[in-house]
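Researcher: Go.
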Amino acid sequence: MIKILSTLGWISIIGGIIIGFIIGIQVNWLAAFTCWVGGAISGVLFIAFSMMLEYLEENNYYLRELLNRTQGQQEPPRKPLGNSKASLKSLTGFKMNSHE
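Model: Structure:
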């Protein structure tokens, strides 16, 4: 897919230049300029999208490699920290004053 998008981008750029020259000679140079700009923009977008897919595939490869390396390294079970319910009996009758 990456090579197809990159190839389409280059074909769009080169095709826009060639068609622009043909239209410029036969019709006018304003239409040729429009073909050049349109071909360049669409070609750059195709090439940029292919580069993004290439980086995405590279990141996917590295993430899968890290996942495969870390699956064998399981952490040992931790000891329980104790009773999670705290006793608040020592605070019965405590009142806060407004100056505290």
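Model: Helices lie at 2-26, 29-70.
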